[in-house]
Amino acid sequence: MKKSSKALLFSALIFPGAGHLVLKRYARGIALLVPSIVALIVICNDAMQKASSIADKILSGEVSPD
Questions:
Q1: Burial 22-38 (b: 16+ CB within 10 A, else e)
Q2: How do residues 14-28 score in pLDDT, each as one tens digit?
Q3: pTM of the prediction?
Q4: Helix, strand, coil abundance in the chain, percent, nearest 5
Q5: Whole-angstrom distance, CA of residue 46 vs CA of residue 59
């Protein structure tokens, strides 16, 4: 498998920027990895807050568990 094909698969299937790291273009790879990781953390944090809010409403009886 060519190195560029391997890099493409890494970026598409593993994580954005991983392909650049495979190609040893570390600055570009990190420049893509960091914003992706930050966005993932923000999205997960928001989802956890919403899930916690819904769980609290269910436990207090405000909302039925259906």
A1: bbeeeeebeebbeeeee
A2: 888 888 988 999 999
A3: 0.73
A4: 80, 0, 20
A5: 20
